[in-house]
Amino acid sequence: MARIVIIGAGMSGLAAASRLGTLGHRVTVCEASPTYGGMVGRYERDGFAFDTGPGLLALPAVYRDLALKTGREPLEELVELAPVDPESRHLFPDGTALLLPNASRGGVGQALDAAFGTGSGERWGEVVNRGRAVWEATRRPLLEEPRPERRPDDPYPVPPRRGLGRWLPRGRYTLADVARHELGGHPGLTALLTEYALRHGLGSDSPASATVLPYMEQTFGVWYVRGGMRALADAVFRRCEQRRVEFRFDTPAEPLVEDGVLTGVRTADGSRIPADIVLSSVPSGSRALGRFTVLLALRGARPGGTVHRTVVHAADPEQEFDRLFQHEDLPEHPTVQLLRPDDPALVPDADHESATLTVTVPNGGVLDGIGPDHDAYAAHLLDHLAKAGVDLRDRVLWHETRVTAQVPEPSLAGAPLAADNRTGVPGLYRIGGTAHPGGGLPRVGMSASITAGLIGPA
Known about the structure:
By secondary structure, the protein is of the alpha/beta class. It has three domains: 3-44 and 53-82 and 228-285 and 410-455, FAD/NAD(P)-binding domain; 106-159 and 172-220, no CATH class; 288-405, Alpha-Beta Plaits, CATH 3.30.70. It has helices at residues 11-22, 61-71, 105-116, 120-144, 175-182, 187-199, 212-220, 230-242, 317-327, 372-387, 441-455, and strands at residues 3-7, 26-30, 42-45, 48-51, 57-58, 81-83, 88-91, 97-100, 222-225, 246-248, 253-258, 261-267, 272-274, 277-280, 289-299, 309-312, 336-339, 352-362, 396-405, 428-430. The strands form five sheets. Strands 8-7-16-17-18-15-19 form a seven-stranded mixed beta sheet. It has a five-stranded parallel beta sheet with strand order 10-2-1-14-20, covered by helices on one side. α1 packs parallel to α2 and α3 runs antiparallel to α4 (120-144). The longest helix has 25 residues, at 120-144. This is NAD(P)/FAD-dependent oxidoreductase. It comes from Kitasatospora terrestris. Residues 11-444 form the Amine oxidase domain. InterPro entries: Amino_oxidase, FAD/NAD-bd_sf.
């Protein structure tokens, strides 16, 4: 039995603690804040409740595996999962509306043909099929196994070039190239592709392997946890308690390495906790993007037929990427995601609605602090939604705003990989969004699984 200390009680820390406790280790978790869950937070006021981090779950298989490996019971016995169907509604600047079904590649193709014209679904399907080839080539080395020693080449199967283009030197093939050459530069299809990238903190210059993101979502589906995503954190925390994991909240800590040897952790008050193994989920490295969130308490019942997730696409996608990645400035009319869950647990009664809108912004600077700039930008975003046909302004009872660090980008073939779970110090490991295999709920769960596998049973 090893003495293990985990720094951070976010989802990666909880997942690692439950796995290592099940393997027979003695586990202590030190968390700087008063509670667990990290970015999977919850805000409550006047009978309303909101997820303050991710609101939807992709690849639930990661947490199904966690539930089975740590308790031999299905995830569905711990939380209530509901598929989000339709998966999303997309509103484009030219007035086009697109309704996408959940986990139905054929249904997506039909919806694209209806919205953009015959052949659009086939063109999109060919790109997503190439995303499938990326998934099959990278699933194990980039998601399920320890970080490879070198960055793998992008396995995206680039189609043969035609005409004079075949004589030009071939360089790095990017999402922008996919949009230009394979989607024909179609504005709607391009906006759909780049929205997946933007949501994961990626730019249009990302490697073409990023097409794995729409493949995963449209193949495996998107899910909602009843009661809000915080219910998932609650379930994993309970599993930790069942495995006798000790939690120390309000306890910032850092690894303690003396003469190159890991001896435990040192807490903010100067005390020491001896440990044979330490896992740190403290973020490392810089983050280029942030997330601006507006929590909306709405008067009036949620209208029948309301879609759970609506995306209002940017008026000028190129300008949006340019402002975000080149000038670190706020896009004037950005891509906005609006979540409107049909969940009685989130509202005081049936005559009210809880909604959350999010937009990707530069990380820091333009919206630092709390003040009138937040409220002004929130009002601007509501006006932006209203012009797209989703007018919530007269229904707002109150709103709350916040700026958080963007979930770090996932590890992609052809791009720099997240930091290795192993460090140069024996017994010291990295987990979480800035460690292999990257950010997002599924990947931080995989980070915990990979690291628990490296440590092994007691």
